[in-house]
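call fold(seq) -> tokens
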Amino acid sequence: MDPPAVRRGGADRAAPEGGRRLRYAVGELLSCTRCTGAWSALALVGLRLHAPATGRAVTSVLATSAGNDFLHSGFAWLCSRANAQAQVAERSSSARPAAAARAA
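ret:
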């Protein structure tokens, strides 16, 4: 298999490997996340038009995956909030005995 048509350059930017004509154009389209998203959406619409039952199944799987990502993000946010509150409570409880020892 040939090496990819793009190489990573700079921070998070893809730089074209070179190539000519079609290879260059495909490399540009595949390295652009906006373009990849648009092409994927177009392919999904085409699938829904060509084979509606299969398109519904694929759409259902993708929607379930998106719901899972949303729920996971919420769970991660709740966990980080709980950890932050636990750290604050731990600091305040460890500061109280030190203040009591200084007062005595």
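The first strand starts at residue 6 and ends at 9.
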